[in-house]
Amino acid sequence: MKSNYNKIAGHDTGRIIAISDAVFGVAMTLLVLEIKVPELEGNEKELALAFLGLLPKFLVYFLSFMTAGIFWMGQAAQFEYIKKSDRNLNWINLIFLLFVSVLPFTTAFLGDYINYNFAIGIYWLNLFLLGIMLYINWNYVTKHNFVSDEDKEEVSDGIKRRIIISQTLYFIGALLCFINSYLAISVIIAIQLNYAFAFFRGRQK
Predict the structure, then answer these.
(1) Which terminus of the chain, N or C, has fewer Cβ atoms within 10 Å?
(2) Are 60 and 69 in contact (CB under 8 A)?
(3) How far apart are CA 168 and CA 128, in angstroms?
(4) What residues make up the domain containing 181?
(5) In this predicted structure, what is the pLDDT of residue 109?
């Protein structure tokens, strides 16, 4: 009896995890390559001033490294409970990784135009699309019973709530660019630090 290709493809969750780790690793490495060493011939003071001029790029680099780390952990947390896979789930995660691979570009764009609201908007859109794909990923696996009933009941609300709350906070942080772009970036970093280290423990943790 012949089997439909769509039914037999993509059952190995290990391949999703493997390519995800690879894409995240490359993306996180590429982030720092956007910080170029200044080329100048001068004294110590001029070199120090040139280095200080790179601080906005280092700020955006730290922002994006935290972003990549949080979404890497978010996807990994979901796959701790995902027991099965199919072709559609593979493509959902590939699209998620597409937005991960765009992160070095949106980081470079924000670093070069840090005082422009449009650049912050593009960066926020990257965050939003990453969050949406994680939500779609979890919604798909729970609807298709790729998670055990016990795990589904225990962790599903927590995962969805965390995504919704974090995306809402990112949006609020991004809106602060209309006051000051550095304020917006600092607030988003503060949100990420809290999610990374749980300084303020709440139900969403």
Answers:
(1) N
(2) no
(3) 9
(4) 10-197
(5) 95
